[in-house]
């Protein structure tokens, strides 16, 4: 039986961004990452740019994981429900 994962992407991304850590690199740029979430990292010239790039990276990784059937990284405060596809309303 096929399973589907259900969650709100916008809530997932916002929760991940709340966990993000930022630091300056040796060139003065900003590196952003979400600890313990593979692929959730980016950089930018400013905090705002690094945060927006991180948002794009999170969305891209999650969408790719869903398309390929990979595990979506767990984010504190977000529940990813698995349901049987056949039980969903048409």
Structural topology:
Blueprint: E1 3-6, H1 9-19, E2 21-24, E3 30-33, E4 41-44, H2 47-68, E5 81-84
Antiparallel strand pairs: 1-5, 2-3, 3-4
What is the helix content? 25-40%
User: How large is the radius of gyration?
Assistant: 15 Å
Q: Give the helix tally.
A: 2
Q: What is the CATH T-level topology?
A: Double Stranded RNA Binding Domain
* Count of spatially separate domains: 1
Task: Indicate the overall shape.
Answer: elongated
The largest β sheet comes out as: 3 strands, antiparallel
SSE string, helices as H and strands as E: EHEEEHE
CATH class assignment: Alpha Beta
Number of strands: 5
Mean pLDDT: 92
What is the second-level CATH architecture? Answer: 2-Layer Sandwich
Describe this entry's structure for a reader:
The chain has helices at 9-19, 47-68; strands spanning 3-6, 21-24, 30-33, 41-44, 81-84. The strands form two sheets. It has a three-stranded antiparallel β-sheet with strand order 2-3-4, with helices on one face. The protein has a two-stranded antiparallel sheet with strand order 1-5. With 90 residues, the protein is an alpha+beta fold. The chain has a single domain (3-85), classed as 2-Layer Sandwich (Double Stranded RNA Binding Domain). Helix 1 crosses helix 2 (47-68). The model has no long low-confidence stretch (mean pLDDT 92). It is elongated, with a radius of gyration of 15 Å.
Defining key terms:
single chain; 90 residues; alpha+beta; Double Stranded RNA Binding Domain; three-stranded antiparallel β-sheet; two-stranded antiparallel sheet; 2 helices; elongated
